[in-house]
Amino acid sequence: MHPAVADIAVTMPVPPQKQLKSLRAEIAAARILDCGMIHERVLRAADGITPLPSDMPIGVARAGLCPIPVRRQRLGCSHTGSRMRMIEAIDLLAVTGEDGAAALRDRIGEIDARIGRIDHARGDAELAHALACRDGDAAARDEAMAQIAETGRRFTQAQAELDVLRGDLIAAIDRRLAEVSGAG
Fold first, then answer.
1. Is 145 in contact with 129 (CB distance < 8 Å)?
2. 113 Cβ contact list (under 8 Å, min separation 6)
C-alpha cells in the first residue's frame, strides 16, 4: 500500500437511524421561547421616547440579534438555523419511507416563511412607532402600536404551531426508529 493511502481515513456513512436518534435529541432539547422579537425593538434615549440614531439606513438603532449560541438553541427564533435540524430529520424520514414526511416538510416550510414575514412586519412597525414618537404624531404612533401588538399575537401563534409540529416530528421519528429496531 502506498504510504499516503494509509493516512486517508475511511469514513463510513452514518446509518439513517443513528442520524435520526441524534437529530431527535437536538430537536427535543431545543427551546421555543416567545421573545417577542426583541431584536427588532428600537433603542430609545433616557426619556424613553426619542429613538437613538444610527448610521444604518433606517436611521435608528435596534436592539440587535441574540448571540449565535442562544439562537442555535431556539427553534422559534426569527434568525435561527436550528429549524434546519427539523428539516434534516424530515428529509431523513422521507428517505426511510415515512408516509407523513411530505406533510411535515410543508408545515415546517410554511411556519418558517411565516416567521420571516412576521419578523419583517414587526421591524416595520417598530420603526414606524419610533419615528411617530420622534415626530409627535399620535395617530401614527397608535397605529404602529396596534401593528406591534398584532405581530406579537401572530408570532405567539407561530410559536405554538411550531411546538405542535416539533411534537409531531418527534413522534414520527420515534415510530420510524421503533419500526427499524423491530425489523432488525
1. yes
2. none
**Do 86 and 163 meet the contact criterion of CB atoms below 8 Å apart?**
no
| HEC assignment per residue over the chain | CCHHHHCCCCCCCCCHHHHHHHHHHHHHHCECCCCCCHHHCECECCCCCCECECCCCCCECECCCCCHHHHHCECCCCCCCCHHHHHHHHHHHHHCCCCCHHHHHHHHHHHHHHHHHHHHHHHHHHHHHHHHHHHCCHHHHHHHHHHHHHHHHHHHHHHHHHHHHHHHHHHHHHHHHHHHHHHC
Q: What is the pTM of this model?
A: 0.83
Nearest 5 degrees, angle CA 12-CA 14-CA 15? 120
Q: With contact defined as beta carbons under 8 Å apart, do 140 and 127 qualify?
A: no
Report pLDDT digits (tens) over 24-48: 999 999 998 888 888 888 888 888 8
